[in-house]
Amino acid sequence: MNITTATGRMRERRSIALGLLFACSALVSPALVSMALVSPAIAQTSTNTGTSPFPPRSGSLPSVADATAAGANTSLRGSTSTQSGTSQTTNADGQNPNDPNIATGTVPGRDRNANQEPPYEEDLNQPPDQPLDPGAEPVESQERPREPGDPTGIRLGSFLLRPSVNQRVNTEITRSGGTKTRRDYLSTTMRGTLTSDWSRHSLTVTGEGTFERNIRGGEDGLRPEANIDADLRLDLANDTVAHITGGYSFTREDDYDPNAIGGATTQSGVHEFTAGASIERDFGKVRGTAALDLTRASYTDAKLSDGSTLSMKDRNRTGIDGRLRLGYELSPALIPFVEVATGRTLYDQRRDNSGYARSSQSYAARTGVEFDFGEKLRGEIGTGYEIVDYDDSRLKSVGAYTIDGNATWSPQRGTNVDLGLRTTVQDSTAPGQSGWVEYQLTAALAHEMRDDVVARLRTGTTLRDFSSGQSDETVWVAGAGLTWAINRYLDLTGDVEYERASGGGADDRIVRAGVGLTLKR
Question: Which residue, 33, 46, 34, is CA-closest to 82?
Answer without folding.
Answer: 34
